[in-house]
Write a structure and sequence with these properties.
Length: about 280
């Protein structure tokens, strides 16, 4: 009887071990396709209080931080081809990822510090010469506007609902279906959110509710970690300031508005202002 009991015990241990391995593999299923920002790298540029890690620009992003923490508001201005994008940069000295969404080219990156009222002082600036490995590389990486990590529950859910799928179109359709069937629009957040607030990925996923930028960022996260380039589009839907998605599936750009898909908006005309 003792030998039979031990045999059964080993079978239990083996079964538990196999289940743990399967869960671990499933939890990191996106590791082959997901791109995670890295720092510090080997190619650094420093000017004044601005530090830029440009070691992974071929993957569509650069990292930025301040060399000394400050209690003042910091802004990052990125200029390319005459166009400008402004970002709020954290003042803690921690790196943040920013997209090279306009592809290969020369990007001027400048740091400004709020010194008094609405006055800012220049605190550093560098010019980056980016050569991307793929025109859509920037849309496969988390950044300040689509922020998630390897430990995000949203990432784990993306792996779960696409685990048995192989083609990009199947994966895309599964994510669209999940967004349409599982999420609602957060009208309270819409009426109380402060100007300039960034999209929230995991909080939106946890509540299964958010505003347009949150819903779009969740969807984009779920697609990017599966290797499908996806853009967060910001602009106007008719007269409403709005956010939606454009993804590249099998070489074709596909428009999808999660907010409209769940019945919280019915717009006829979309006008792009910026994208991340």
């Amino acid at each position: 009887m003792k030998s039979v009991s031990n045999h059964r015990l080993w079978r239990v241990f083996l079964l538990v071990g196999l289940m743990w391995i399967a869960a671990a593999v499933s939890a990191h299923a996106s590791s082959d396709t997901a791109v995670w920002p890295e720092h510090p790298g080997t190619d650094m540029q420093v000017d004044g209080n601005l530090i830029i890690d440009c070691s992974h620009m071929d993957e569509g992003y650069f990292m930025a931080c301040v060399s000394s923490a400050s209690s003042n508001r910091m802004k990052l201005r990125v200029t390319i081809n005459g166009g400008q994008l402004m970002y709020d940069l954290n003042n803690t000295g921690e790196y943040e990822a920013f997209p090279l969404q306009f592809g290969s080219g020369s990007y001027k990156v400048e740091l400004f510090e709020n010194v008094k009222s609405n006055k800012y002082s220049a605190e550093g600036g560098v010019t980056l010469s980016a050569q991307l490995s793929d025109p859509n590389a920037a849309f496969l990486v988390p950044n300040q506007y689509v922020s998630y990590s390897v430990d995000s529950q949203t990432v784990a859910k993306s792996d779960e609902i696409t685990a048995s799928l192989s083609s990009p179109k199947e994966i895309y359709d599964a994510v669209c279906s999940f967004m349409t069937s599982e999420f609602s629009y957060d009208f309270v957040r819409a009426s109380t959110i402060s100007s300039g607030a960034l999209p929230e990925v995991d909080p939106c996923y946890d509540k299964r509710s958010g505003i347009c930028q949150d819903l779009s960022a969740v969807m984009i996260c779920m697609l990017r970690v599966q290797g499908i380039p996806s853009k967060l589009m910001i602009g106007y839907a008719d007269q409403y300031y709005h956010a939606w998605t454009v993804s590249v599936v099998n070489g074709e750009e596909i428009f999808f508005d999660p907010t409209a898909a769940i019945g919280a908006l019915n717009a006829k005309k979309y006008q792009i202002e910026r994208f991340y």
